[in-house]
Each structure stands twice: as structure tokens, then as C-alpha cells.
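Chain X:
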Amino acid sequence: MPHSEYHRIDRIGWLRAALLGANDGLISTASLIVGMAVAAMPAASLLIAALAGLVAGALSMAAGEFVSVSSQADTENADLARERAEIIDDPAHELDELTAIYVGRGVSEALARQVATEMMAHDALGAHARDELGLFEGTRANPLQAAVASALSFAAGAVPPLVLAMLVPGAQLALVVASSSLMLLALLGGVAGRLGGASMMIGAGRVAFWGAVAMGATALVGQLFGAQV
């Protein structure tokens, strides 16, 4: 019978990259706009910088995720290739190894040997991938998926503060962008916590905290720069 239960762990491949991208897009773009607004930069320059930050950030996230997850995938594939060769070269040793794993998990030796024998006959590489290497199909590295999720989510996160920068007068821009971005970050953190099965309050609090730190720091830089100008 096919396994039909729903597990949150199945989302981990794309959820981590998407949430990281959205957080980064919102925090970095909002912080950039707040810093430039505090420094009283011209509206046109501010918008160009924010738009350039969106494009550069999205591509940077995509490239970073692709390279990082590709490295993880390379490691996983190398381990699988080594395991495949060992199964071909010394299947008896691999059977003993699998048996010992099951015994270590509390299965009696006789039953562990029987299970290992049947698993080796059915899908030897799959059994060793799961039980020896800890690799599961739902959590295997997928570089392209991670890159696309990161780029799109970064852009989505960067859009709200960019739109506000187009609509809100310069004198109010820093306050409006900071407050609305903190609310969006709290919402995003809460949703992330809910999707991951954790507390929504904790998820909202930790994301909003670091967003406030980032925007506060760039506002300070903008104030110092603006005072010098």
C-alpha cells in the first residue's frame, strides 16, 4: 500500500530557500530604502537603487543557492556512487552492515538479518541510502528548485517596500516602510512557523527582531551620511 501520510519534512527542500529569499528581499530592500530616506536622498536615486537592489539580490540569492545546493548534491551523489560500488564489490559486507544498523535500532539480530536480506533484494542502494547515509527522496538536494524559489521569493519580498517608495512622500517614507515591513516580517515569520509546525509567535518574533536590527542600523548609517552631506 502506498504511503499516503502527510509530513512537513517533505517541504524542507523548497521551503527553506523560499523563506530565506522572502526574508532577505524584504529586510534588505526595506533597510536600503530606510537608510537612503533618512539620508534625504533624491526620490529618483532612491528608486533606482532599490530596483537595482531587487534585481541584484534576486540573482545573488539564486546563484548562492544553486552553488550551495549543488555542492550538497555533489556530495550526496558521490556517497551514493561509493555505496553502489561497495554493494557490487562486497554485497556480504554490505548485508552485515545493514543488519548491524537495524540491530543498533533495537531489532533482534535474527529479524534484522531477515529484514536486511529482503531490503537488499528489493532495493539495496535505496536501503543503504536511507538507513546508512540518511538520504531520503523528499529531502534530497535540488539545486534548480532552490535557486528558482530563492530568486522569486526574494523579488516578492522586495516588492512591498519598493511600491511604498513609489507612493509615500519622502518625509514619511522611512517610518512607513519600516513599520509596514516589520508587520510583514512578523506575518511572514508566523506563517513560516505555522508551516514548519512551530509556534507562530516565536517565528514572528525572531524574524521581526532581525528586521528591526537591520533597518535600525541602516537608518543610523543614513543619518550619519545625511548629516555629512
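Chain Y:
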Amino acid sequence: MPRVVIFDETGDPDVLHIVEEPIADPGAGEVRIRIEAFGVNRLDQMARAGASPRPIRLPHARLGIEGTGVIDAVGPDVEGIEVGDAVMIAALPDADVRGAYADYTVVPVTAVVPRPPGASAIDAAALWVSYSTAYGALVEKAGMRPGDHVLITAASSSVGLAAIQIANQIGAVPIAVTSHSAKKDALLAARAATVIATDEENVAEAARRHTGGVGVDIILDSVMGPGLAELATAAKFGGTLITAGWLDPRPASFPVGALTIYRYMSFEHTLDPVVVRRIAAFLSAGLRFGALKPTIDKVFAFEDVVEAHRHLEKGQQIGKIVVTV
């Protein structure tokens, strides 16, 4: 019988367990996906730990906002997609009910996009959330342009690495920020223009040094926390600060002054079919020409999903953690 990962209470990774459930049939406007792989994301960790920004329906909650697989069945009123098509899950705000941590899941047809030709299941599982978040924040929201200097915090995360690649694809200048100087070589290899390690130097001072004293055009921050106001001083006058994560759960110190500030939530764009088409086209082109390539930190088997979450919580990964089904 098909398997699904559930949790009946929030807590550490051990609250996750695998159960067997019958396969559900898709309803009107829905498709059933046989999952081949899924990405492990911070939002999954937050939901499991009881820190989700959205209410989680317990007990028997599911996990997984991102996955890839093959269409196994289609419901009535579904057009443009057929059994056997390889797809990625593009938007799953109700992952506690439909989560991708499973052998099969049923989702609205509007929640899937075609898997880019030639992309492996592992790469596709690591693609959508990270790259749609980075693209949505930098391109759709902040209006990143060629030549812009872009400061990227938590640069070794999957979103950070995606942002480096997307900035390069656009022709911007990605400046990576990491809290661990040991990650500098890996970030330079990932094509960051330069790397600022916060255990060695002050971010704002280093950013101004790398921009001739002007400051960066855009800051993409995935950390938040009380250091946000100081981070903002790395931006130029009239620059843009866009926050897209919560790695530091402490209250944020929002800056004041001549700075445009956005609080970005990816569902703002991944639930908009027009923007989803733009994201899919951008990613497909980047993959096709080699500008984009998901960075995979480690791959786990389905049975080892608890270990995958433990690995995520260590915070030492570079890139995306993927689980194969």
C-alpha cells in the first residue's frame, strides 16, 4: 500500500513517521502524481516544529511543499495535461493535507508545471521552491537589472545559491554573505562575484568596499532577526531591501530611511498563473543554456526522512536536501 509521511504533534524530527494509506482519486480539476522525489524545505521544518506561519491541521498532518513525479491519474475538467506527463509541484499552500512527502499526492492541476526537458527527478525536486523564491523576490519584486550589485545573505542555502545563479543569468553582480568563512571557496565556485564572511568582517563595510563606497542596489535577506537594520546600511541611498526567510526567529529590527523594503512570500507569485508561466519559462531557459543548475547537498531515501530533517537542522548544508521515493 502507498506510503505517506505524517505527524500527529509538532516537535523535533522524531515526530515524523511513515504510514500506509489507500490511493485517493482526483476530483474535478485535480491530478494525482506518483512522486519520484521531493525537496526538504525550511517551511517543512517550521510546520513540523510548530513554527509555521500558517495553521497546521493536526493530527495526521502531512508535509512537503515541493516535489516532482509523473501524472498517474486525472480528474474531470482537466485540460492540457495527461497521464504519464512529468511535472513539478509549483504551489501547495495546503501541504498539511496534500503534502509531497508521499508515494502519491492529489493536487489541483493549477498547482503543477511541466518538468523541464532533460531535468532529472532529483534536480527537479530541488528546483521550484528555491528558484521561484529567488526569481520572484529579485526579478518580479525588486526589479533586478543587469549591473545591479545584489547582496545575498544565507548564500549557501538553496535560495541563496539560486539567487547567485539568477543574478548571473540577468547580468547582475551577486555578493554572497555567509556566517562561516569555511564556505567561501564553495560560494566562489558557485559563481558569487565575491564573498563576505561575517565571522571575519563587517557586512556593511565590506559591501561598500566592493561597490566603490556606494552600497549595493538590492539586499536579498533570508535571515531577518535583530541584525536586519544594520544589514540595511549595506544598501545605497534609495536601494531595496527584500526579506524572504526567517532563519533567525528573534524579532527583526526594521530599518528606517531612504530604502524600499519588501517582505516577500513566494505564494504571492506561485499562486498567480501568469507569473508562474514567466517563472517556468525563465527556469527552462536557464537550464537549457546551463546558466541554472540546482545545487544538491545530500540525497536521502524515503525511509530516512527523519534523518533528512536532522541534517537540515544542523544548518551546515550547501544547497538543497532531496528525498527520493
